[in-house]
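Reply to dn_fold:

You asked what the input looked like. This is it:
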Amino acid sequence: MPKQKTKRAAMKRFSITGTGKIKRSRANKRHILTKKTTKRKNQLGKSALVSSADYPRTIKLLQA
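and this is what came back:
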């Protein structure tokens, strides 16, 4: 049985912290930024954590 390969697309989008949580970037900061407030744009620039509901699926993609 061959080893499971890491999904490269997932590796580019997520990173694992030292405590085992998964960091992700936020969506909606690519275009149509004029109608979004400065506060909202600043918050979208910061990273977030993957929710507990999505954690098992995401960790499966990242583990080789």
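The chain has one domain: 8-62.
Hope that clears it up.
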